[in-house]
Amino acid sequence: MSGQRMGQAAQWRLGRSNSTRALVLAATALLLLGLCAISVAVGTRDVGWTEIIGGLQGRAETIGQAAVAVRIPRTIMAAIAGAALGLAGAIMQGVTRNPLADPGILGVNMGASLAVVIGMAWFGLVSASASMWAAILGAGVTAVFVYVIGSLGRGGATPLKLALAGAATSVAFSSFTIAVVLPRNDIAGNVRSWTIGGVGGSTFADIRLVLPFLVLGFVLSLLSARKLNSLALGDELAAGLGERVAIARAMAALGAILLCGATTAVCGPIGFVGLVVPHLCRLLAGIDHRWLLPFSAIGGASLLILADVIGRIIARPNELDVGIVTAFVGAPFFIWIVRRQRVREL
Question: What InterPro entries does this protein map onto (predicted)?
Answer without folding.
Answer: ABC_BtuC-like, ABC_transptr_permease_BtuC
